[in-house]
Amino acid sequence: MQNTTKKLKKAIVLGGGGSKGSYQIGAWKALRELQIDYDIVTGTSIGSFNGVLMVQDDFERALDLWMGIDIDKVIINGLNLRTDFNYYRDHSDKLLPFLKSYADNKGMDITPLKRLLSEYIHEDKFFKSHINYGLVSVKFPSMKPCQKAKDTIQHDSLKDWILASCSCFPAFPIYKIGDDGYIDGGYYDNLPINFAFMLGAEQIIAIALNPNPHEYSNHPLVRCIQPKESLGSMLDFDNATISENITLGYLDTMKSFGKIRGNNFSFYDLDMKQYNDAFIRTLSKILHDEATTHYEASSFELLQKIVNISNNTPIHNRILELLTSSLKLPDGFINTLSLLPRTTYLENFVLALIESQMYYFEFDVLQIHTIPNVLQDIWQKSRDFLHNQNITSLSNDITDREFLSVILCYFMESL
To answer: Motif GXGXXG located where (predicted)?
Structure first.
C-alpha cells in the first residue's frame, strides 16, 4: 500500500487589540519568510481585518497600510492616546472637537475607518481565495456571541461584519447590520482559537496582542505567539510605536520557530556548546570557591542567588546535578531545586546571563545581535563597571547587578 502523508489543516488565529494589530503584520512577515502556508484564518476586532488581508494574500499592501497609518485615518477628531492627557487639558481646542463628535455619534466617528476598509478589502479576491475565514462579534444588547464563517457572509456585507467585529463599544459606536446592533468580538472571544477548531483546524498558530496567558497557552496543537510585555494603548497610532511593534512581532515569531534565539533580546542562531561548557565551568568554580569551603547560611543564600539569576529560566539537569553532587545541602534547598523543570536547555540560562548585562548596558531590543560580538562588548563594560565599583570577587553584600557582572567575567574567563 502506498504511504501517503495527509497534510494537516493549519489555521492562523489573530487576536484583537486596536493599533497593536501592527504586531501581527510583523508575525505575518516572519511566516512568509518561513514559507508557512495556512488553510484557515480567524480573527477578532483588528484581527478580523488583518485576517481578511491574509486571506487576500495582500502582505505588501498591509505593510504599507500599517507603516502609514495614523489616528486620523481611523476616526475623525481622534485623540492619539500616546499623548499625555495633561496636553489635552491645557489645549481644550484639541479636545472639544473630539467630545462633540463623540456625543453626536454616540461614540467615536469611524468614517475614516470605513473608507480605509473600502480601500483595502476586495470582496472578489477574498471570496475567490481557497483560504477559509471566520470572525467574531457580539450582538448588543443581548451580548449573544456571533461567529461568522466565510460561507455565511454575503459578498456585499464583508466590510459590515468587520466593522461589527471592530466596534469596541463604548469607544466606538454600536454597529448596526439590519435591525441588529453589534459590538466588538473581544467581549466574547478576543483570540478565537475555538472557532478555528470548529472550522476544521488541526494545527493553530495564535498571534495574541497582549502578554497574558490564556486557556490554550500550553495546548499541544496550538503555537502561541505573543509579546513579552504590553504593546501599549489600543489607540496609540504613533509611527515609531507601530514600527516597533511590527519588528517585535517578526522577532517573536522567528524565535517561536527557533530561527532566532533569545528572550527579551534577539540573537542569530549559533552553536552554543562552547558557551554551555563555559557556564558549567563557571558554576563549578563559583560553587567550589564560594560554597563548599565556606558552607553556612550565607552560602545557602549564595546558592539560591546563583540558581535564580533569571526568573523562569531553570537550570538544565546537568547543572542541578553539579550543584548538588558535592554538597550536603539543606532539605529546603533540595526541595527548591526539585521544583525546577529539568528539561530546559542550559543555553537558555546562558542567554539569560548575557541578556541581563545587555539590559544594564541598554542594548537595542529591536536589533538581532551576534553572541560573540555582544560578549566582547559586555565583558569590557562589565570589567569597567566592576573596577569603578571596586568589586573584585563575589560576596553576599554586593548588588544583583554587581553579582551578575562578576559571574559574566568568570564566564568569559572560562571560554
So the answer is: 16-21
